[in-house]
Amino acid sequence: MAVSIFLSFNHTSAGTPAVIPQPESISSSGNMLPVSKKITLSVESPRNVAKSLPPASFISEMTGLDIRYGKKSRLKSSCEPESYTLYINGNKAHLQAADYNGFIYGLHTLSQILSTSDSITERITVTDTPRCTWRAFMLDSGRQKQSIEKILALIRMASRLKMNRFHWHLTEGLGWRPEIKAFPMLTAKGAFVGKEPEQQGYYSREDMRKVVEYASQWGVEIVPEIDLPGHSEAALNAYPELGCFGTVPDVPAQGFTENIFCAGKDRTVEALTTIIDEICDIFHGQYIHLGGDEAPKANWEKCPDCQARIQQHGLKGTHDLQLWLSAQLASHLEAKGRKAIFWGDAVYSNDGTPLPKNSVIQWWNYRGHGDLAVRNALERDMQVILSPNYYCYINFPEEPWKGYGPERTFNLEKAYTANPADSVLARGDKRILGMTCALWTDYNLTEQMLDLRLFPRIFALSELMWHKGPRKPLAEFQSDIDRLTPMFKN
Ligand SMILES: [Zn+2]
After folding, report:
1. On the chain, which terminus has fewer CB atoms closer than 10 Å, C or N?
2. What residue ranges do the domains of the chain occupy?
3. How far is the CA of 293 from the centre of ligand 1 (A)?
4. What is the pTM of this model?
């Protein structure tokens, strides 16, 4: 008779599972057995999930395992959103999923456990629940345009790291990417203002719908960003009349200019509203990102229409005018039942027009302003997403490169052990929704270079977003990374 033992995994020993991000708990008992990749999966889930479980062929492809469904039953206990409990016993697995994402995450864990060892203990139990409700990956498709295939691959990577949102930065001075039917020149002209080969082109409505649908199967919601009023040189090349002076602006290869959308002209506000409506038609998630970063006000200071708007509404100046414009557009989203996200620049000063209740602030400029945006947003009782450039801007290279000097570099250890986002999360304030890691593509960070930036630091960021408890020592975490990295690169 086999002697059954109970043990907690020693993560450094061979044959034990590596899972990233680290689950809340893993326990195991029994003898070591060869891994079977042919699995019968029974699922306990709420009724709405049970009715829409994807076909076995899809989950087999997703996990790299040969899975057939066993018994499906209704989950009776209540669980935290996105949580799951997974029992593995030889060639049988039983998954209790709180919701669709809990189901997907349980499968990702199953896949990692069975794909990284030749033998595992007879019985394994994993219980898991996320630290943050907002766990996002951001891709800049404005400065460089990526293929749809690469975007889908990044969505798979994000899902496998148990991230639930893909923030898609779609517009930049160097390119307007989303097709808008009411303003066809935005893509006919604005998608071709950059000079580099990967700065050409746009995403059709069909492309974007395909991305939305694909992401949804992987438990990921797309958060589209239309960056305004700044970073809009491409849009103003297409429609100069939406700027303050009707002139066609130069498109800088790097950085941004004072050529921004005019907030004083009604036709500009109406155009932006129409664009937002079309974006809402394609992207069905709750959140629409309206940018708001880095919008120099030199033109607004001189523009008669902008100055008239300031007078008309008794605004405190051009920063307040940006708040007024942001509030108009956020209110428009509120009427459609959506939420608006703005970069932290919106709250550098807490003077002026309040943003409506459906507005969320995304903190980014730790290098320039410390945690000012977080403090001011919380003072206004607003919800916050954390993306401090130290150390959530994964485009910052590990070694100096082009415009990135030594002061704008960081390594895995910094991301994992000294992340300002982690310290803010540790306060436990419910208004802090979670984290987004951002991959900007300035200095021509082309598609084939993206993985160099992502790996291995993306693992550390996913760990901060997902894992609640004490963290593994860096050396152990590195060993998990070494075992798992190939699973995330396809
Ligand atoms: Zn103006």
Report:
1. N
2. 13-128, 134-466
3. 17
4. 0.96
